[in-house]
Amino acid sequence: MKFTGRNVHIGKNVKIGEGVKIGDDTIIYDNVEIGSNTIISNNCVLGEPLNDYYNNLSYENPPLKIGAGSLIRSHTIFYAGSTFGDNLQTGHRATVRENTIAGRNCSIGSYVDIQGFCEIGDYVRMHSYVNVGQGAKIGSYVFISPFTVLTNDPTPPSNTIAGVTIGDYSQVTTSCVLLPGCVIGRNCMVAAHSTAGGTFEDYSFIGGSPAKRLCDIRKAPIFNAETKKRHYPWQYNFERNMPWEGVGYAKWLEQNEQDCE
Amino acid sequence: MKFTGRNVHIGKNVKIGEGVKIGDDTIIYDNVEIGSNTIISNNCVLGEPLNDYYNNLSYENPPLKIGAGSLIRSHTIFYAGSTFGDNLQTGHRATVRENTIAGRNCSIGSYVDIQGFCEIGDYVRMHSYVNVGQGAKIGSYVFISPFTVLTNDPTPPSNTIAGVTIGDYSQVTTSCVLLPGCVIGRNCMVAAHSTAGGTFEDYSFIGGSPAKRLCDIRKAPIFNAETKKRHYPWQYNFERNMPWEGVGYAKWLEQNEQDCE
Amino acid sequence: MKFTGRNVHIGKNVKIGEGVKIGDDTIIYDNVEIGSNTIISNNCVLGEPLNDYYNNLSYENPPLKIGAGSLIRSHTIFYAGSTFGDNLQTGHRATVRENTIAGRNCSIGSYVDIQGFCEIGDYVRMHSYVNVGQGAKIGSYVFISPFTVLTNDPTPPSNTIAGVTIGDYSQVTTSCVLLPGCVIGRNCMVAAHSTAGGTFEDYSFIGGSPAKRLCDIRKAPIFNAETKKRHYPWQYNFERNMPWEGVGYAKWLEQNEQDCE
């Protein structure tokens, strides 16, 4: 009942892969490309025109590419001019502006607001209400929890954009503020409600307002409830939807590094 | 003009009580039951199918029940597989996932995101942007303010779900983080911007990051502006939309306890 | 493709100025007035009826006025009974309730929730997810960042409304809680993640939980990355979309003060 073709409107030069489903009341603007077997649920807006559209008669929509095998849940708005890799998932009512380059297997939660002009790696998972300011560079296998904001203006208001950088495998938990220009290394963990600025080395356990490096996360007494072992680096204790699912991180890493040689 | 029947789509086996109004552009999927005199405003989605719907040809929508006398404001999304008691109210664009069991006279504000698999008592009021993680157990007469999050993963990311518990009559004010497994007793008050973990006994006044029990809320020097008396326990000073409205809490409690005997 | 008139529904006594565009799937209820050359994008709801509408057969929608030259982005909901000056901009999915009086050249970001019964000056910019409680008085040239909440109930829950006041030119940065009755003077700066209550004089640099006046913002060692000069008062270093754009604040102020004489 979601895919009856009711009130679906599709612009010019839209490329729709094999097996794609498009939900009712969805609008797809010009120059959108959707990979095969992707599901666009109802009431979505893909290729939302940029501001120039409203006043420039010769406006041309920049291309939006969505990878294959994705599931775009209802009421998502994606602006024109972005690229998402395969197997993307969104929650409801996410908004992603132009010039967002995201890798494969990413998950963008409900009410997430990505302001565009940012880079996102593979297997990144944003929970609900994550706010990503322009200029952000987010690595791969990064998780960001609700109400966390990646800021970018060191002297509001100004014309300076100092985006946030987050390294691979890092966890930024709920309700954190990452201050302009903040650099979180790889394999870090930012505790809930932190206010983090400056640069943090790999494996930092970060917490407080202002946030400090509390210790090496590998030495933090944080244990996995199932295995009773130290939980971090978490890759050894969690594999759901990760590329090492069923293989284990250690083995996957070994295979992966061999592949690279 | 809201209830012209325009673009209303209703699935199979939908039971609609007497006097129900359904707003334009609203979609009701299979197996939804709506109590009498409930108003579903425009652009709502009721019985949103679970993930299995997208790939399983024999998918059957689990039932969604909405009590009588409710007012579901526009753009609300309720997944299939939940139950709400009578006199529910929602704001705009709330999202509630499956396996949410809520009592009567609840209020779910705009942009609220309830992740499902949770229990909510009677007369619970969530303001805008409350984020309820899976596994939460919320008592009755609980108020939760904007940007407050009930977390559940003690070691993100992991498969462990340690939901939050909030006792009857407790107030969780704005921008709080309730850490995984946190237990807030009955008649507690959590101050704004707190980060609370662990277990707090009844009548705790809780605040800080990390939050501590500051004192017994009954002894806190917090006075009602109208009565000039100590405000907590608040039931003696506030009755709007509460079951003791017009009767007073003391008398209502007495009657209620007698009824129980 | 946004303005084809598809599924546009317009109530009684709606006044639409010259050159106005109305997006597809937009609903405009009774007694709305839209200034000339304003663009209402798709899926908006203007003049959303107040609660009384659902039960009162003789309900009359109070007027909603939107100034000329505005751009209302998609999925915005404005209740009946408010007034917005010229050149308003909104993001996606903003919600503004009744009895909001806003000046000209304001910007209301995506997911913003304004609860109504409040006053907003000119050139106010709210980023995404700002929550404005009833009773707020916001001056002109004020910027408010994501996840910041202006509260109003000093003793939740109660019938007391003690709105927040923010003076002209003040910056309230991300994830702040302004406690009930908080008064922020003119030209203040509230640091990220602060919890501010009480009254702060003009030019205060405010930070912490609970927030204190850290120093005079004019003496804070915060430098503009372009000019290398002290950034605050920011008016001397930032002019994009401000009335002194192209003139400079000093000169504009001089002219303005002369105009007033």
Short structural summary:
The structure is a homotrimer of 261-residue chains. The first copy, chain A, has 261 residues and is mainly beta.
Folded structure, characterized:
The structure is a homotrimer of 261-residue chains. The first copy, chain A, is mostly beta strands and 261 residues long. The first copy, chain A, has a single domain, classed as UDP N-Acetylglucosamine Acyltransferase, domain 1, CATH 2.160.10.10. Helix content of chain A is 5%, strand content 29%. Chain A is built from 1 helix and 31 strands. In chain A, strands 3-6-9-12-15-18-21-24-27-30-31 form an 11-stranded mixed beta sheet, with no helix packed on it. The longest helix of chain A is centred in the C-terminal third of the chain and has 12 residues. Chain A is globular and about 55 Å long. Chain A starts with 8 loop residues before the first strand and ends with a helix. The mean pLDDT of chain A is 96. Chains in contact: A-B, A-C, B-C. Chains A and B meet through loops of A and loops of B.
